[in-house]
Amino acid sequence: MQQISLHQVLPQVFAQRVGLTSDVWKKEVCFEKGNVYLVEAKSGKGKSTFCSYLLGYRHDYTGQICYDAEDIRDFSVSQWVDIRQRQVSMLFQEMRLFPELTAWENVEIKNHLTRHIDRPTIEQWFDRLGIAEKLNVQAGILSHGQQQRVAFIRSLVQPSDFLVIDEPISHLDDVNAQLMAEMVTEMKEKTQCGVIATSIGKRLPLTYDHIMKL
Prior knowledge:
It is built from six helices and nine strands; from the N terminus they run βββαββαβαααβαββ. With 214 residues, it is of the alpha/beta class. β4 and β5 form a beta hairpin. The chain starts with a strand and ends with a strand.
């Protein structure tokens, strides 16, 4: 996949809103593979909704979202399975870890689908982000910041044309935010994927090709 495009997309909940100002809603927007994008939003502007739309989890909008030239509303279940395994990777704001599984198991359950990354590399990522000792700890008893780092590693273990990361550093200090940014940059340089990050204020410290206000 080379691009994700939005054509006059508007959440239905905003349909009656007067004076809506946005660089994304009700606009022609194209996210291209190989570029890094920041979508900034105040609370209630639809940031997580936007991410859910991109991955086809919600369809309560008017307008059209396309992968290359194909409307995502036309995708079959099997197409979505392949897309979510190999083309678009998502770091959810709420992380969506399995609390009863260990940190390693939460990552491995995703990596098992494609075997895209080997275990030594994953263990190196845990160590780099300062959570090597949490590898075999249940996710449910980790701190929010530790869970966010585990969810981030999980988002990197699958092949993807686009990496979508929703509020990736909301629970992290500046040191870990910088480490995460370095890992995203390395992944982008290696795979030429596109990166779409969202922020409500604290930005992932990347070099952005485009910054948009939601």
